[in-house]
Amino acid sequence: MKRLLAGATLLALTLSGAAIAQDAPFAREIKARQGIMVYRAMQLGVLGGMAKGEIDYNAEAAQKAADNLVAAVTLDQSMLWPKGSGHSANAASTANDDIWKDGSDIGAKGKAMVEAAMAMQAAAGGGLDSLKAAMGPVGEACGACHKAYRIPQN
Ligand code: HEC
Question: Which of 90, 120, 121, 138 has its CA 20 to 30 A from that of 75?
């Protein structure tokens, strides 16, 4: 009986999950891509903290954060950005519709991000000065894409 009930609860949860997904367009894609972004920000928090002197420089920890950042910016995201899945379709997203317009250079901005993260990966373990020098381009790569393709954040 207990197992039956647990099964029924699970089914109810699954069904309500499906209903939520239907109510909010692209909910899964948005959640997944935002999760990847948050993960990037966590790695950048470590690297930026060291660059600013808020966290003691540690070559191993810096290397780990840079390796994680590269992993996060090189994940295949082709399933995560279906056309029109921005803020205008679902307010949970802060993506703007320019992403899917003709002339969008989001691919180039993503590529610049990968290059900056790889330069950080080569630099992070080589001392604080070398980490600091790689920091600017990484921050700029995040910021340039947000400026163009996110609705303004305050
Ligand atoms: C090529 C474009 C691009 C690059 C590069 C990029 N982002 Fe984003 N980011 C976006 C877009 C678009 C959104 C909005 C996603 C959504 O809400 O659907 C976003 C959202 C976010 C969010 C908010 C997530 C949430 O929970 O709503 C954070 C945090 C973030 N990015 C951090 C970063 C960091 C840190 C970097 C650099 C290491 C970075 N991003 C690089 C495009 C980019």
Answer: 90
137-141 CB contacts, 8 Å cutoff, 24+ apart: 138/44, 138/47, 138/69, 138/113, 139/44, 139/48, 140/116, 141/109, 141/112, 141/113, 141/115, 141/116, 141/117
Q: How far apart are CA 14 and CA 60, in angstroms?
A: 42
> Taking a C-beta distance cutoff of 8 angstroms, is the pair 94, 150 a contact?
yes
From the number of C-beta atoms within 10 Å of its C-beta (0-12, 13-18, 19+), residue 47 rates as buried
Contact by Cβ (8 Å): 73, 117? yes
**To test ligand 1's pocket by mutation, which of 30, 37, 140, 145 has the most ligand atoms within 8 angstroms of CB?**
37
Structure tokens at 118: 């790889």
User: Averaged over 76-84, what is the pLDDT?
Assistant: 97
Q: Mean pLDDT across the stretch 83-105?
A: 97
Pocket residues: Cβ below 6 A from ligand 1: 30, 33-34, 37-38, 40-41, 44, 93-95, 106, 109-110, 113, 141-142, 145-146, 149-150
Q: What is the pLDDT of residue 154?
A: 78
